[in-house]
Design goal:
The structure is a single chain. By secondary structure, this protein is α/β, with parallel strands linked by helices. A 7-stranded mixed beta sheet has the order 3-2-1-4-5-7-6, with helices on both faces. Strand 4, helix 4 and strand 5 form a beta-alpha-beta unit. The chain is globular and about 40 Å long. The model has no long low-confidence stretch (mean pLDDT 96). The structure holds S-adenosylmethionine. S-adenosylmethionine binds next to loops.
């Protein structure tokens, strides 16, 4: 068990190889237009525009303006190849190996959109995110309530929507390498479509 979470928290219904699950490309959007706009708005507001790593990425990265240099890391090569903003594409399974195959201090910011619920060792991954971030760099994690239920961790499936930002903030704290995280619901309260939550933190 990682980082002091309860036994079974990181179990999944499908404990099979992630490479098999993500082998077929999915050229879909996983959240609706308003939620995608909320992701882009947050990136604009925070000024995520330099040398950026999109962790657990696919064919779309939701920036309103492409960052100066975007690296994308995910499971499906065809999806990453189709990402029009990407300058570098990395196929890597973070559950098999939480170490990001990049050198120390090589990016300004790391983003992770609608994917944190699939990480079985999130604290180790967040610790390694800090390693690849330059001083003052940020981790910006966004998520909604839509899920591949067989691949999401049990702790996420059983948590309420309100608890999920607390879970991600706890991952950040337990990694021990970031300042106190900020968390917010970024779609308006009572919004009828997909909600968009965000947790972000600066490397300490
Ligand atoms: C719901 S999709 C989100 C894709 C994209 N971030 C977006 O906003 O549309 C989940 C993504 O997580 C990635 N992913 C899932 N498990 C992973 C793992 N073990 N290691 C690395 N990436 C993973 C998949 O490649 C997939 O693209």
């Amino acid at each position: 068990m990682e980082g002091g979470f309860p036994a079974g928290f990181f179990d999944r219904v499908d404990e099979g190889d992630d490479a098999a699950f993500y082998a077929p490309p999915r050229f879909v959007t996983h959240i609706d237009e308003d939620a995608i706009a909320a992701v882009g708005d947050l990136y604009e507001e925070l000024g995520v525009r330099g040398d950026v790593l999109d962790l657990m990425s696919s064919w779309v990265s939701h920036f309103r303006t492409p960052p100066a240099r975007l690296r994308v890391l995910g499971m499906n090569a065809a999806e990453l190849d189709a990402n029009p903003m990407a300058a570098e594409r990395i196929v890597h399974d973070l559950n098999a190996d939480p170490r990001i195959p990049l050198p120390d201090e090589c990016v300004d910011d790391v983003v992770c959109c609608v994917s944190v619920d699939y990480l079985t060792q999130p604290v180790a991954v967040f610790r390694d995110v800090a390693r690849v971030l330059r001083p003052g760099g940020r981790l910006v994690c966004t998520f909604s309530n839509r899920i591949f239920p067989t691949k999401a961790i049990r702790g996420w499936l059983y948590a309420s929507e309100e608890d999920r930002p607390r879970i991600v903030a706890e991952y950040v704290r337990r990694s021990g390498v970031f300042e106190e995280p900020k968390a917010a619901l970024r779609t308006p309260p009572g919004h009828r479509g997909d909600p968009l939550y965000a947790v972000w933190a600066t490397r300490s």
